[in-house]
Write a structure and sequence with these properties.
The protein has eleven helices and ten strands. A hairpin with a 4-residue loop joins strand 7 and strand 8. It is 42% helix and 21% strand. The strands form two sheets. Strands 1-5-6-10-9-8-7 form a seven-stranded mixed beta sheet. A three-stranded antiparallel beta sheet has the order 2-4-3. The protein folds into two domains: 85 residues; 216 residues, Bira Bifunctional Protein, Domain 2 (BirA Bifunctional Protein, domain 2), CATH 3.30.930.10. The protein is of the alpha+beta class and 325 residues long. The N and C termini lie far apart (84 Å). The structure holds adenosine-5'-[phenylalaninyl-phosphate]. The site of adenosine-5'-[phenylalaninyl-phosphate] has 25 residues, from strand 6, strand 8, strand 9, strand 10 and helix 10. Adenosine-5'-[phenylalaninyl-phosphate] binds next to strand 6, strand 8, strand 9, strand 10 and helix 10.
């Protein structure tokens, strides 16, 4: 086949291509490695010199022409495709927007924030401690040695022999006293863990807020005043509270504070005057310093404040519950 004939056939075939696949097939037929024109160009080597120049020139010209034609045809196909897609995906700017649903703070976070604000205004600093504790800080330093029966009140999840999930926020008392000199007043909110059966008012993980105030003459009367202030400001002037004597190894004397809930008294917090052994463990001289400490259950406060009858709802991840806040 001579160049002129080749040109005619190739052009008509490219024109006939109806889609990118046809076009690619045609390109392979003429310009591909085993294509017709490629064969002509290869065969030049065997031709006489003057024919080599003439046919070579013509073949190369045809090659550029074909390449240009393929390119423009390909672009045309691409444009068509884009136009078709744009038609299908037309954006309707008058369509109503999709509602973005906004979340809200978890009731426990809300309560914690409110409690922090109240204590902040009473001059308390906010401190955090680790959730994974050592046996020493969770028990020994708080006047609960290894064989002490009180350890049974706070069964927990042990991580090996020395580490555990803290059962209360009280270890933060020791950690803070070790590094700071009195007078001071702090609160330490955070998660705590217990290995116990759950019911409407008991969870295996819940939140406490620890308080510690140490000075020269901080007394039980200060404790009562601060707690009453806090609970009234948080829960309203009308709440009913009662203090009763209680026992915790890390305080002497110790008290418990209950609040009236659904006609019965619900235990809200433990408190008392920091035990001399605990002050010593924190590096303070009990003849020089004294103070009070308390540990309040944040979940229980939230239950009363937001009228929730089962503590387990807080951790259920149930949106029907959470959306009410
Ligand atoms: C303590 O944890 C002491 N560390 C509190 C304390 C601090 C006393 C400083 C003296 C001085 P208790 O185990 O009673 O005490 O827990 C304190 C509060 O946490 C309880 O009053 C209650 O409100 C809450 N609480 C206890 N167990 C659970 C539970 N399983 N689920 C939810 N809340 C709980």
């Amino acid at each position: 086949m001579n160049i002129a004939e080749l040109k005619k056939i190739a052009f008509s075939e490219i024109e006939k291509a109806k889609n990118p696949e046809d076009l690619e097939k045609a390109r392979k037929t003429y310009l591909g490695r085993k294509g017709e024109l490629t064969a002509v160009l290869r065969s030049l080597a065997e031709r006489p010199a003057e024919e080599k120049i003439r046919v070579g020139k013509e073949a190369n010209r045809l090659k550029s022409e074909l390449e240009a034609l393929f390119e423009s045809k390909k672009t045309a196909f691409e444009k068509e495709l884009l136009a078709a897609a744009a038609k299908k995906e037309r954006i309707d700017i008058t369509a109503p927007g999709k509602k973005v649903s906004r979340g809200s703070s978890h009731p426990l976070s809300r309560l914690r924030k409110e409690a922090e604000d109240i204590f902040g205004s009473l001059g308390f600093e906010i401190i955090e401690g680790p959730e994974v504790e050592t046996e020493y800080y969770n028990f020994d330093a708080l006047n609960i040695p290894a064989e002490h029966p009180a350890r049974e009140m706070w069964d927990t999840f042990w991580l090996g022999k020395k580490f555990l999930m803290r059962t209360h926020t009280s270890p933060v008392q020791i950690r803070y006293m070790e590094k700071h000199n009195p007078p001071f007043r702090i609160i330490a909110p955070g998660r705590v863990f217990r290995h116990e059966a759950t019911d409407a008012s008991h969870e295996i993980q819940f939140n406490q807020l620890e308080g510690l105030m140490v000075g020269k003459d901080v007394s039980l009367a200060d404790l009562k005043g601060i707690l009453e202030q806090f609970l009234r400001r948080l829960m309203g002037e009308k709440i009913q509270i009662r203090f009763k004597p209680s026992y915790f190894p890390f305080v002497e004397p110790g008290v418990e504070v209950d609040m009236l809930w659904n006609g019965r008294w619900l235990e809200m917090l433990g408190a008392g005057m920091v035990h001399p052994n605990v002050l010593r463990a924190g590096g303070l001289n009990p003849n020089e310093w004294q103070g009070f400490a308390f540990g309040v259950g944040i979940d229980r406060l939230a239950m009363l404040k937001y009228k929730i009858d089962d503590i387990r709802l807080f951790y259920s991840g149930d949106l029907r519950f959470l959306r009410q806040f």
